[in-house]
Amino acid sequence: MMKRLFAVFALLLCLAVAGGISAQDAQSALIVATQLDDVITLDPGRAFETTNLVVHHATYETLLEIRPDDLVTIQPLLATGYTVSEDGLTYTFALNPDARFASGSPVTSEDVRFSWTRLKNIKGNPSFYADAVAAIETPDAQTVVVTLSAATPAFATIVTAPAMSILEKAVVVANGGTDAADADASDLANDWLSQNSAGSGPFVLTGWTPETEITMVRNDNYWRAPAALPAVTLRNVNDATTALQLLERGDVDIYENVDKDLAEQISANGDLKLEMGQTLNLTYLALSPDAATFTTPLSNRQVRQAIAQAVDYDGIIDGLLLGYADRPASPLPIGVQGSDPAQRYERDLDAARALLAEAGYADGFDLTLYIGTGAPGGIPAETLAAKIQADLAEIGITLEINQQPTSNFLTAFRAQELPFLFSTWTPDYLDATMWSDYFSFADGGLSKRIRMDIPEIAAIAQQAAAETDATARTALYQQYQTAHVTEAVFVPLFQPQLLYALRSSVQGFSFHPVYFLEFYTLSKG
Predict the structure, then answer these.
(1) How far apart are CA 478 and CA 487, in angstroms?
(2) In this structure, what are the phi and psi dihedrals at residue 313, rounded to the nearest 5 degrees?
C-alpha cells in the first residue's frame, strides 16, 4: 500500500513540475482515464478527430457557443452578439472588449481574421468550415464583418465549432504560423500548437505525449473567472478493467466511455457515481459503391442492402451495449432535423439472402472489414467486428478482419483506400449540415473517403443546406434520409450513450454532444 501511495504522490509531483503548478494544486488536479489513440495533431486548424474537441474547448474559445443546458440556442462568447444582412451574405460580429487570451492580450478582430483565414488556407481536414467565407473585414478592433460566398443559414452554428476557435495571432506567427494563401505549405506552427495553446480558454495546453497523455493547466488570466481545477490530465487507458481499477484506487478521477458491463459494479460502489450523456455520435458501416477502384461486390446496391438487412442490430445494442444506445435510419442521428428511425433497416436474413441471390451472389463471397483500435460507443472495436463477422456469415459472406492502430486506419480511410469499414462520426456543431455536408458529396467529407458519388443524395443535401424555411428544410432532410436508406452506403449501427464513472468528490459534471466534458464547471472536493 505504501509503495502505491508513494507512486501516486510521485506522479502528482511530476505533474506539478511539468505543468508549473504547486504540489498542493497537483493533488487537486483532475485526471481522466480515456483513449487518446485518435490524436494526430492538436493544431485547431488541422485536427479533425474526437479527443481534440475536448482539448480545444478547454483551451480555446469561439465567437459564439451552444451550452450543455440549452442545445438549441446560440449564445455569445467572445462576441457579444451578431447581425445578419437581409440577403444572408454578411455577418457582423461585435467582440467582447473584456475577452483576453491566456497571455493577457485582448482578443481583437485581427485575431479573428487571422484564425479563420489560416484555417481556410491551411487546407487541413477541418478547413471546410470556412469554405463559405469569401472575405473578412476588420473596421475596428472590436468589429468583424464576414461576407459569405452564398447564403449559409447554418453559419452562426458553424461558428460554434471548435475548429472555428480564435487563436492569438502574435503567438502563432512567432511560432511559425501564417494565414498566407500558401499556408498549406508555409505554415509551420503545427508542432508548436500540438504541445502548446494560443487561446483564450480556461485552460492552457502544456503537453501531449502520443498515446500516453495530454496535460493542461489552469489559465489564471481567464477573462471570465479562473476555473476551480488547477490542472487536467487526459491519460490514455485502453483496457476497461484497468481504467476501473485506477478509478477505484483514486489514481484517476473520471473514467470516460465506461464499458457497459461495468455499469452495475460502479453504481454499487459508494465512492463512485455514474453519469450518462446522450450523444449525437454515429457508429456506422461504410460500404463503398465505387466499382472503378475496388473489386468488391459492394458496388452492387442489392449487396449493400443485403448486408444492411443481415446485421443483428438488437444483438449489438442490447447484447453488447446493454441497451445504452439507439439507432437512426440514416446518417442523420435521432434528434436532428429530418431524422425518423421508423425507416431504419431491421434484420431479415431471408430478405438478405434473396437480395444476394438476385445480385448473383447466392453462394456468398469473401470480404475484408477494416477497423481501428479503441472502443466505438463503448464496444471494443474487435468485439464489434467479430459480431458483424458472425452476422454476415449467416448469409454466406466470409469476413476477414483487418485491424490497424487508429492513426493508421484514419490515414488509410482519408486516402480513400478502404472499401468496407466501420467508424464513428462525432459532430462539431449542432445543425443537420454537420451530417449532410459530409455524408453526401463526392469531393469532400466521408463520402469522398468511401468514394461515393450519388448525384441524388448530393443534390438534396445541397438544396436542404440552402433552405431557410424550417418546414421545407425538414421535408428535404426527410427525402435525404430516404435516399440514403435506399443506397445503403452508410448503414448506422447505433447512436450511443456515453457513460462516465466519477469519484464522488468530483462535482459539476455536465455533458455536451460536441465537446463531451466541460472542465470549466468541474471541481474536486
Answers:
(1) 15
(2) -65, -40
Stretch 47-62: mean pLDDT: 95
Is residue 500 within 8 Å of 277, Cβ to Cβ? Answer: yes
Set out the domains of the chain in order of their start, with CATH numbers: 2-252+505-524 (3.40.190.10), 282-496 (3.10.105.10)
> At residue 273, does pLDDT exceed 50?
yes
Give 58's contacts (C-beta < 8 A, 6+ positions apart). Answer: 201, 202, 203, 216, 232, 519, 520
Best CA proximity match to 331, nearest among 449, 462, 496, 485: 485
CA-wise closest residue to 78 among 100, 56, 59: 100
Cell numbers found for residue 372: 481501428
Which runs of E-coded beta strand occur in 332-405? Answer: 365-371, 397-403
Cα separation, 134 vs 151, in Å, equals 11
Predicted confidence at residue 19, as pLDDT, reads 46
CA–CA separation, 128 vs 491, rounded Å?
24
Cell numbers describing residue 96: 467582447
* pLDDT at residue number 252: 97
How many whole angstroms separate alpha carbon 509 and alpha carbon 520?
10
User: How many residues are given for the chain?
Assistant: 525
209 neighbors 90 (Cβ within 8 angstroms)? no
Q: Which of 212, 211, 214 is nearest to 193 (CA)?
A: 214
- With 0-12 / 13-18 / 19 or more C-beta atoms within 10 angstroms meaning exposed / middle / buried, residue 434 is buried
Q: Judge whether 245 and 261 are in contact, CB under 8 Å.
A: no
pLDDT at 18: 43
H runs (alpha helix) in 148-239 = 155-158, 169-174, 183-186, 190-193
HEC string for 280-295: CCEEEEEECCCCCCCC
**Rounded CA separation 101/59 (Å):** 10
